[in-house]
From TrEMBL:
Residue ranges annotated for the HTH tetR-type domain, each copy included: 33-93
Gene3D superfamilies in the record: Tetracycline Repressor, domain 2 (1.10.357.10)
InterPro entries: Homeodomain-like_sf, HTH-type_TetR-like_transc_reg, HTH_TetR
Biased composition (Polar residues): 1-18
Keywords from the named record: DNA-binding, Transcription, Transcription regulation
Annotated organism of origin: Streptomyces pseudovenezuelae
Signal peptide (from-to): none
SUPFAM superfamilies in alphabetical order: Homeodomain-like
Pfam families to which the protein is assigned, alphabetical: TetR_N
Protein name, per record: AcrR family transcriptional regulator
Region (Disordered): 1-32
DNA-binding region location: 56-75
Phylogenetic lineage: Bacteria, Bacillati, Actinomycetota, Actinomycetes, Kitasatosporales
Length: 246
């Protein structure tokens, strides 16, 4: 992060509270998610050991301990099988943003979430980050994997917009009789918030991709967390107050 004194966020960006916790998933949903992640880990392990081209969907199914027909109930192709791993980081970031302390401005909450998800040992282990590096590098040579990465990134951008909308919606109704959920729903569709979510999402995605392309360790000034924090500085002067007013 820069040592310069950041611009002070507007009042609308500071007096916010974390959004409500989403309802817990059903047992069936949790089991399906667990199976998807088991398949994703099996696929990633084979991609790393054998290479993408040498790995078949049937190989992934065998490694995951499931029948090929079960594999195809969850994923349409071997490349899609790693989508849960691609999505996991963005989901953790979104949840960390949702749970960020209420006294943080939106830029501070975004940075708080980055520190709690992209720092090795806090979000994921250093070894897991090396797996992330390999999976992202594979997108350079596989159009199919690149498509999966792009789709996951786009979906994550939408979820981030929803979290930001709830947080800003709480700000917009403070001192009024408005409904934060209704305000947040409207904000999620506003061009200003969609742009902000896209920019914040890109700040983190580009940082992770840039780190993955090099050889720097996951921690330190050239790690994904440090790079994302530098990128997010661009949002410190974003007119969050105007976005909150819709």
């Amino acid at each position: 992060m820069s040592s310069s004194t950041p611009a002070q966020p507007s009042r609308a960006a500071t007096s916010v509270s974390p959004g409500p916790t989403p309802p817990p998933a059903s047992l069936t949903e949790r089991r399906k998610a667990a199976t998807r992640m088991e398949i994703a880990r099996a696929a990633a392990g084979l991609f790393v050991r054998r290479g993408l081209r040498a790995t078949r969907a049937e190989d992934i199914a065998q490694a995951a301990g499931i029948a090929p027909r079960t594999f195809y109930r969850y994923f349409a192709s071997k490349e899609e099988a790693v989508a849960p791993l691609y999505a996991a980081g963005a989901e953790r970031w979104g949840e960390a943003l949702r749970a960020a302390p209420a006294d943080l401005s939106v830029p501070e909450a975004l940075e708080h979430a980055v520190r709690h998800t992209l720092t090795p040992g806090v979000g994921v282990s250093a070894a897991s980050w090396e797996l992330v590096r390999t999976l992202i590098r594979l997108t350079d040579t596989s159009p199919a994997l690149r498509k999966v990465w792009a789709e996951v990134s786009h979906e994550a951008e939408g979820r981030l917009g929803e979290v930001l909308a709830v947080r800003l919606g709480e700000s917009a109704v403070q001192g009024s009789d408005g409904d934060a959920d209704n305000v947040g729903s409207g904000l999620a569709r506003s061009p200003g918030l969609r742009f902000a979510a896209a920019t914040a999402s890109a700040a983190v995605r580009v940082a992770v991709e840039g780190w993955a392309a090099g050889e720097a360790p996951a921690s330190g000034p050239k790690g994904p967390a440090a790079m994302a924090l530098r990128n997010l500085e661009a949002l410190r002067d974003f007119p969050w107050g105007e976005v909150a007013r819709g």
